[in-house]
Each structure stands twice: as structure tokens, then as C-alpha cells.
């Protein structure tokens, strides 16, 4: 499923990327309402994270809701 709006993911200091036009391959629950999102396209700096980005409920609940909504269409 393609992300069709600006959606910033960051893992300081390794990367900060806009996921717009990227493809979600999978979403994994990593506990406490937090998620890991596997992206098809290569993300520079995220190679050691298996091209996955994390979103944390405490700070990014709106992003999590959006990702789940488009992925489960």
C-alpha cells in the first residue's frame, strides 16, 4: 500500500525521511501500541534496521492511525 501524504520517519542520528510515495510491505506491533513499518523502497540510513521505521504511540499516534488505516484498506 502506498503512502500518499507527507509522513516523516526518523531515527536520530541515522536517518530522517519523508515516506510519501513509499510502499508499506508490513506492519508489526512492537508492544505498547507502538509499530514497526517495513518499507519496500530503500531508505538511506535504515539498512541496519532492515529497512523498517518505528512509530511510537506516545508521540506519533496520528501517524500510527493513518498507517493502519491505509494498510488495512
Give the spatial strand order of the biggest sheet.
Answer: 3-4-5
Low-confidence parts lasting 5 or more residues at pLDDT below 50?
A: none
What is the percentage of strand-forming residues? 35-45%
Shape: globular
Q: Helix- and strand-based class? A: alpha+beta
Topology as a string of helices (H) and strands (E): EEEEEH
Q: What is the tally of beta strands?
A: 5
What is the helix content? 10-25%
* Cα Rg: 11 Å
> N-to-C terminal Cα separation, in Å?
9 Å
The main pleated sheet reads as: 3 strands, antiparallel
Overall mean pLDDT: 91
The number of distinct helices, counting runs of at least 4 residues, comes to 1
What does this structure look like?
The chain has one helix and five strands. With 73 residues, the chain is of the alpha+beta class. The strands form two sheets. Strands 3-4-5 form a three-stranded antiparallel β-sheet. It has a two-stranded antiparallel sheet with strand order 1-2. The protein is globular. It starts with 7 loop residues before the first strand and ends with a helix.
